[in-house]
TrEMBL record, chain A:
Keyword Oxidoreductase: yes
Name of this protein: D-amino-acid oxidase
Enzyme class: oxidoreductase
Gene Ontology biological process terms from the UniProt entry: D-amino acid metabolic process
Sequence ranges assigned to domain FAD dependent oxidoreductase in this UniProt record: 20-328
Keywords associated with the record: FAD, Flavoprotein, Oxidoreductase
GO molecular function, one term: D-amino-acid oxidase activity
UniProt organism field: Chelatococcus reniformis
Cofactors that this protein relies on: FAD
SUPFAM superfamilies reported in the protein's UniProt record: FAD-linked reductases, C-terminal domain, Nucleotide-binding domain
Automatic annotation (TrEMBL), chain B:
Gene behind this protein: thiG
UniProt subunit comment: Homotetramer. Forms heterodimers with either ThiH or ThiS.
Reactions accelerated catalytically: [ThiS sulfur-carrier protein]-C-terminal-Gly-aminoethanethioate + 2-iminoacetate + 1-deoxy-D-xylulose 5-phosphate = [ThiS sulfur-carrier protein]-C-terminal Gly-Gly + 2-[(2R,5Z)-2-carboxy-4-methylthiazol-5(2H)-ylidene]ethyl phosphate + 2 H2O + H(+)
Phylogenetic placement of the source organism: Bacteria, Pseudomonadati, Pseudomonadota, Alphaproteobacteria, Hyphomicrobiales
Record HAMAP family: ThiG
Protein name, per record: Thiazole synthase
Function: Catalyzes the rearrangement of 1-deoxy-D-xylulose 5-phosphate (DXP) to produce the thiazole phosphate moiety of thiamine. Sulfur is provided by the thiocarboxylate moiety of the carrier protein ThiS. In vitro, sulfur can be provided by H(2)S.
A GO BP entry: thiamine diphosphate biosynthetic process
Compartment list: Cytoplasm
Amino acid sequence: MAPSKTYSDNSKRPTPEAISIVGASVAGTWQALAFAQAGCPVTLYERHSGDLVGATSYWAGGMLAPDCEAEVSEPLVARLGHRSLALWRDALPGTRFEGSLVVAHTRDRADFERFARLTPGHARLDAAGVAALEPALAGRFRDGLFYAAEGHVEPRRVLPMLYRRLAELGVVLRFGEEVAPHELPGTVIDCRGLAAQDALPELRGVKGEVVIVESRDVTFTRPVRLLHPRWPLYVIPREDGRFLIGATSIESEDDRVSVRSALELMTAAYALHPAFGEARIVEIGAGLRPAFPDHAPRVTVEGRILRVNGLYRHGFLLAPALAELTAAFVVDGQQDDEVIHAGAPAHRRAPEEVLS
Amino acid sequence: MLTFYGQEVASRLLIGTALYPSPTIMQQAIKASGAAIVTVSLRREAAGGKAGDAFWSLIRDTGARVLPNTAGCRTVREAVTTAELARELFGTPWIKLEVIGDDETLQPDVVGLVEAAALLTREGFNVFPYCTEDLTVAGRLIDAGCEVVMPWAAPIGSAKGIVNPAPLALLRARFPDVPMVIDAGLGAPSHAAHALELGYDAVLLNTAIAKAGDPVAMAEAFRLAAEAGRTAYEAGLMAPRDFASPSTPVVGTPFWHAATS
């Protein structure tokens, strides 16, 4: 995408300028934080209530795993992901990031070696190493890969925490309000996820199904990925003995969970540790990940509306770095060519804002 | 020219559309492979309404002909229902028929396969059955109306290449006029070349390309290998012999020395 000289006009905009953000899932919440920290007055709109039931972030795993994701992702995801990890550390000073662990059964050795070849930043562990990190897995796996630089957050806990931070910074939070980005005044950051398909025709939904279980018999300190040729899965420990088992990846915009997917997820968890057979099912649900065809995120500039989208399965991994780049673009006119794209100038208000 | 159900086919490499890092890479890999036919696995839940539309249109954009697949179906009824949904969704009578008999190896249930093939043929489908190298099964599929037969090289996703070349060579020799595609189990371009050298008309694969470190480069490698294998078959391969046969006679070596050395 060729950079347009019109972009530099942004630097001449008077600051601080008022910013409206649509969507308070992880992408929009971080945008609000970045703009508020840059000194802009910010209003954040969200059609759901404050607990985000129904939003994709509600079902997210919250893994911050830029090294593991290199298996299937463009280098851009790793670059933004490592920056985001630093921003999460700054935002959550009391939180320890414990890395992540990858294991495979002996018969899936080929998948294990392939994963090791395609991902950086890991140390190889033997059985004793696996047991030292996660005692619950002692005696179950002969090899492991440990990604020490990675971490995870609990989406349903950190988003409310960030909302409180936003309120302290003077951000106006308007939950339960459905607004159209082009009807809002001033600079608008559209973070509606899949709901932005009306403006971003390339966007599609990729279904991800998860199961949340509760077990007193297993304890993990960090996310554990089990490689399998057909059913790769991760199990993420949460508070109160809960675990999120995820996630399928299905080319469908249907948002219900199929019996087959539930069986596959729970069978894979049982293969990771038989104690999951006795776990209680707490919730089963699905979210639709918003994805562009290249599975890379984009900030599409359409005049005064900036559409932040395509975070796909990396919402929590990419949101902080994308917010930082978006705010730097709007406030300081700095343009990251890999992320900031000129879009079709739809919904424009004034002709002079049309990008060439 | 190779034809499937009366349609001329420009490439002897057919590839799948699953497991790629992204649809963009899938599209680039299809282009690099030169494949004129791509298989698409249909999950029941993705068939209703607009559920999977965005992905299907990314596949249609490649210009390749779609061969829908009843991947993962375990019963005749399930396979027939999935085939009917696929015909409605993609507007084609072509169907790659998979009836899985074993969850571990994904080995075809050949009994269910023959039954489903007969049912679907009566409904007007053009069936591409995924089967084993068994001669009798292939015969029954042809009797049921299949004009193309697709025996495996090895279990799906196993990357072992052709594990039973002798029965596959026999199958090829017994049905010389039926288009036959080696489907599943190919891991390396040399495996694809081997299949075409045996006289098979085409190969079909997915995982070896989609899960390569660079799927687009691997697609290109398979394209070249399929061309090499077919060209070699047409050129006439040298038959293996049980002992070395020097191309230049070693004049002057007494034959009794050759026999004892």
